[in-house]
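Technical annex B. To support the medicinal chemistry partners, we prepared a structural model of the target in complex with S-adenosylmethionine, based solely on the information shown next.
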Amino acid sequence: MLAFKGEEAVAIPERALFIGAQPHPALKTWPEVTGWQPLKPLAAAWERAGFPRVDGLPEGKWPLVLVLPGKSRDEALAWFAMARDRLAPGGKLLVAMPNTAGAGRFEKELCKATGNVVSLQKHKCRAFHAAEDGAWNEAVFNEWRALGGLREISGFTVQAGIFSSDHIDPGSQLLADHLPAHLHGHVADLGAGWGFLSDAVLKRCPKIARLDLFEADARALQCARKNLAGRDCEITFHWHDVTTGIPGVYDAIIMNPPFHTGQATDVDLGRAFLKTASAALKRGGKLLLVANRQLPYEAVLETSGLAWRKIAEDKTYKLLFADKRS
Ligand SMILES: C[S@@+](CC[C@H](N)C(=O)[O-])C[C@H]1O[C@@H](n2cnc3c(N)ncnc32)[C@H](O)[C@@H]1O
C-alpha cells in the first residue's frame, strides 16, 4: 500500500507491531497496527482509538516494528531486543524518542547492533530506523534482551522500566517505618508498584482481612504477584487507572502517589489519587500517604473531607495521615 505525503510516495506496511503503543491520527490510515502497552491509561487510550491491543507481546514476525520506549535505559534497550525478535527478515525497526530521553544516545546504541541507522529530527525528538539485512550483531541484542528479565532487589522481584526497579524508594520506606499495627479489615494500596508497601502493611498489621492492589503498570503488578505470593490474607491485583476511581469501600488506604506522567511532573495525577482514595474510604476510614514535601496535597485532603495531620517528615518527604470525616 502507498500513501502520498506532498509529492512523495511512502510505503505503508500491511502489518506493524507497536511496542509502547500510543494512538495517533496518522496511524488510522494504516491497514493493521497491533499495539502492546503495559501502562493502563495509555492502553485504554489505544483501545478507545480503535486499534487492536495485546496483553502480552505476541510471538510472530512483522515487516515493521515500532518502538516508543519510556525513560529507563535498560527498558529501552530490552524493547529494542523485543522488537528485533519480532522482525521479519528484511523488516524495519523504527524507534521514536524525545531528545530529553537521550534519543541521540539510543540512536548510537541501535547503530552498534545494526551497523546502520537512518535518522530524522523534528519537534525536539528523533525517529531512527534500521533495516534488517542479515548482518546485525546478535550478541548486542542478546545482552539487551537480558536487561528486560526479572531481577531482584532486597529479596523482591522487579523489572527494568517499573517504578523503583533498582532501589527501594526512600519515601515508601519512611511510610513503611511508620505504619501503625492496628490497620484492619479491607485495605487498598493505590499505585502499588511491585508491592513494597503492600508487603510492609501485611507484615505490620495482622488484622488485615483483605488487601487490594491497584496499579497502572502491568509489569509491576506481575512482580507484585510474585512478591506477595503465599501470604495468609486474601489479596487481589487490579491492572487499573486509579484516576478513574476504584470499586469497593475500604477501612484504610495506603499510597505513595505518582506525580509524573511520562517525563513531566504532573501534580494533578497525585491529586486525583487523593480524590479517589477519599471517595473509597468508609466513614472513619484512614488514609496513609507519603509525598515529596513540596507537593501541595493538604488542600485536596481538606476539600475531600479528610482530617489530616503530618506524622513525620525528613528533608525530602512528609507523611500525611488522614481520617474520613463523613
Ligand atoms: C511513587 S510509585 C509507588 C509504588 C509503590 N507503591 C512503592 O511504594 O514502591 C507510584 C506508582 O503509581 C503507578 N501509577 C502511575 N499512574 C497510575 C495510575 N493512573 N493508576 C494506577 N497506578 C498508577 C506507577 O506505575 C507507580 O508504580
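Notes passed to the chemistry partners:
The pocket of S-adenosylmethionine is lined by residues 41, 163-164, 169, 172, 191-193, 196-197, 214-217, 220, 241-243, 256, 258 (CB under 6 Å).
The chain has two domains: 2-148, 151-324.
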